[in-house]
Amino acid sequence: MDPFERDAARCVFVGISGLSPTADELKLVRRGVGGVILFSRNVLEPAQVAELSRELKAAAPGPLLISIDQEGGRVQRLRPPFWTAWPSMRRIGRIDEQGGVLGLNGTAVAEKVGRLIARELSVCGFDLDYAPVVDVDTNPLNPVIADRSFSRDPRRVARLAVAFAQGLEKGGVASCVKHFPGHGDTSQDSHQTLPRLAHDRQRLWEVELLPFVAAARAGLASVMTAHVRFEAFDRLPATLSPQSLELLRKDVEFKGCCISDDLEMKAISDIWGVPDAAELAIAAGCDAVLVCHSLATQHDSIDAIARGARAGPLSRERLVEAAQRVLTLQKFARPASSIDPMAAGASCATEEHRHFAAQLSESGEMAADQRDPTEQRA
Fold this sequence. Notes:
Elements: H1 3-10, E1 12-15, H2 23-30, E2 35-38, H3 46-59, E3 65-68, E4 70-72, E5 75-76, H4 89-97, H5 106-123, E6 128-129, H6 154-170, E7 176-180, E8 196-197, H7 201-206, H8 210-217, E9 222-225, E10 229-230, H9 242-251, E11 257-262, H10 266-269, H11 274-284, E12 288-291, H12 295-311, H13 316-329, H14 341-344, H15 351-360, H16 365-368
């Protein structure tokens, strides 16, 4: 394998189809992908998930990040009865507004929830959680964010999100703040189409960008881009926009790994096609791209990135920089030998976790939270 293909593979995070990897999926992992994302389709119970994580890591030629969307509320792939049902981030925001609960202020509650989620994730082999959402809940008609956000107040979002993310990272699981530069005020769902925001730069700095600045100052591990067109910066969606991602690095000063949202979402795939978008995203400034569904498309995306770096327009230096940032994030990747499938269940949905989550949740909220707006991606 030449260095172009090696680095390109590291910059692609992939999904698999079922409860255990197929021979072809293990071949893809052996090609050196940087991470694997698990969805509801990959989950049965803790021992099975831990064994799946262990098998994937054992097949990899180097460190492999096992990742998941475990936000709380509607978006949590790991659910009862085997895992704890965590409240929505909006609920944590309301606890903060009310001054706290159980002798803890809202910041401490957010940190503890992140830490307990990390405990359940880590024993199942997860290294990276695509959480927290730092989008600001400014549009009540938003079809995809809503109660996934902590608040309408960007300062509250910033403070609680950083606390939650620090709880995750104290528990040994990398956080990923999302969706840069902000998906909270859109009225369309990027799973289905390409949303746009026409806010000027002053509004973006005062609202959407403020939580990302806090995340950057806290030194958090990673950030996820939005497939949203921010007209103050570019006509391209942020995931593919050099101007938007230069903003992330130079003005927001985020130093961690930048990961795209799933390129198979229609906002990207219907316009650019996934392999071409993978190359464009890395060239624009993403360090890793998510390709969550199609095995052929996953291989084609690696090939497109490697081909672009060999012959242009993707620069070799940009690919090396991206692969190095993924390698830095992979410091969170636990080895296969550290995962004990037989012990995984004992640390998930413990009485302590369930009791704490129940005390945080308002009556009826968890039932209302069950419709997952991202399940189209799963």
